[in-house]
Predict the structure.
Amino acid sequence: MAIQIPLKDPSVEPYVSDGTFDQRVWSQVARIPHGRLATYGQIADLIGAYGCARQVGWALRRLKLPSSVPWHRVVNAQGRISMSLSREGSDWIQRDLLLAEGIPVDGEGRLPLRQFLWQPDAHAGD
DNA sequence: CACATGACCGTAG
DNA sequence: TCTACGGCCATGT
């Protein structure tokens, strides 16, 4: 399946904490097409930060809203918007933005992830 | 340094 | 489909 989150593989360099983590996350998120979705683990995977899905969440949290980065297209692997009081309502804003892009989201934040999951081209990212 | 907390993930029951 | 648990790792106290 497409949503496989590889566990930390010692044969691969995890990720470099050179201070560019946020930048890497944002640039990958910026690649998600309009009307498509990606998961936190998927983004972590794409930037070589295996097992750092939580850090992707932190990186998105650091965005100053409104932002040109389509942060709302990132949801959890369970196919739900990660609802949290600490988000100060940005979770509900996320729901509105997704609805505006044509993605059906129910009252509990559930959405058809399989159907809208973004599958990046292998050769596109270099 | 110890400990608690997250926009997480997968498995088990 | 739901809850519970363990593992994960950067941050904050």
